[in-house]
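Re: that chain you flagged

S.,

Sorry for the slow reply, it's been a week of failed gels. I finally had a moment to sit down with the sequence you sent. For the record, here it is as I used it:
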Amino acid sequence: MKRSTIVKKLMIGVETSDDNYAPNRIVVMGGELDSMVKLNDISVNDGFSGDLTVLENMTQHYPYIEIRIKDCKDDGIDTRIHGLKIKSSQERDLGLNRDFFTPDRLVRYPRLETVDPEKLYRRSLALYRFVSLLDSVMHYMVPKWEFSLGSLNCLEEVKQLLPLSKKRMGLIEMCLKESESPRPSSMPKLYINRRTATEHRTDPTKDPECKHAIFTQIYEGLKPRDKYEKPLNYRWPSKYDQWWECKFLSEGIIDQGGGFRDSLSDLAEELCPCSADAPVALPFFVRSPNQIEDTSNVNRDVYVPNPSCMEFAKYEWIGMLMGACLRGKENLVLDLPAFTWKRLVGEKVTWAQDYISVDSSEVKLLESIESISLDKASFDENFGVALTWTTVISNGQTVTLKPLGEDTAVSYEERHEYCRLVRETRMAETTDQENAMRLGLLKVVPQAVLDLLTWQELEHRVCGNPEISIEALRKTTYYEDLEQTDPRVKYLWDALSNFTNEDRSRFLRFVTGRRRLPAPLFLCPDRGSDTVDALPESSTCSNTLYLPTYSSAKVAEEKIRYAAYNCIAIDTDMSPWEE
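Prediction finished late last night. Pasting the structure tokens below so you have them in one place:
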């Protein structure tokens, strides 16, 4: 293969009219001549004629590719390859050069803006060299599916550098391919009553056992009917894109995939409702404190596992569905915080950096209590006897940190011990539920795959990349004291049209605190300021963007992008003990 060539599709011709020419089993190998690895193993269906795809969607360059016909049908002896066709692309280049580190590019990376561009360039070369060395040994570190009980702890410290690797995605796909099972011989057929499920979702108190929920109907319907029937393992090839067939009662729907996808979407909506006003229909997840208190500029739309829910078999099944989505093309949209995704993928989590995605108020409160500037008089004045040895976990339950803790006040000298116990309790409150979900994931996906994925990639492969299109944004936008023909509005849409999807996600988070649609967006004129070309302001509580006057569309784009990337962390909330 030519240098840097990546195979997108490799096909050979199959002609069943001549048994001598009809292959029965084909193995494709790739790599250097002395160290080839198996890329694919294909069994040719009886009666197949035409172009047979033997390799598809490779993610790295292989210097040599061998097509080995292991045997032919009816003991044929001619193993020559006929009708070879190939589609390829150029290997991805990191594009590291000095021109990359210009101020207009660094606006997306606020922490790097003050660093000397020459230093950034030199560091990028060092990272590039490190990743090249990592690529040269990574295939020795990945265990086979049947030996993947351990974890690749050696990759933990460099996990956020793994997306730079050129060989990582190839290893992930190889692990998934080698661990997949044949598609089921028959598709389960489920009878689902969406009318009663809608009634349950509207008022879950009328069905406390959730018997009518879509989740329960699917979960119970997929259980083996007798001891001879095996449960679904969800390790099917990615092309197997319908896991069960739905028959919706009183609905004239013939399920050819659409009904199945509807059921998966309904299930996700029951687990983590999109609307902040909708009741949570199932007991497995609860709204995070960030969502309930509405005090955080970010992570306002996330849910966390319910610390009080002990139905671990169902958490495990949720994990298996997540694994099936990772393997296939479907999505299970679960709005979980970074803290939970990191736990699922096996990354380390910390209180200050990660738990803020669950309960930012608690993180800030403990920071204030442990602050050096807080003296005994201020502590007693702000807390007195109100601060006891208790904490409230995510589901609203009060937990004592010490025996008789609810009746014992925390003294100034004990404040560090109190904060330590709160951190330990809060960070462990959902451990059992997350472990059950991770166990389900690992029943479907090899450990090596989770070790090679970052938490962001796991979220995207399970939930899908949340595309924020201009059309979708327009549908959720409302104008207050502004006309759609106003130049400020025109400049905004021109800017958003030039934004990447990540830019739009950042913009949506800047205005609403949410990174995905649906979220209402209100556009208003700037609040009484006559300044031209100022940064826009937002109010995440009311989902409002206050638009200044801009001299041009280019300036508007620069200012809005800068605000989206740099103004998210600005928090002018009151002190935790002030009202």
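What I noticed first: The first strand starts at residue 5 and ends at 14.

Talk soon,
D.
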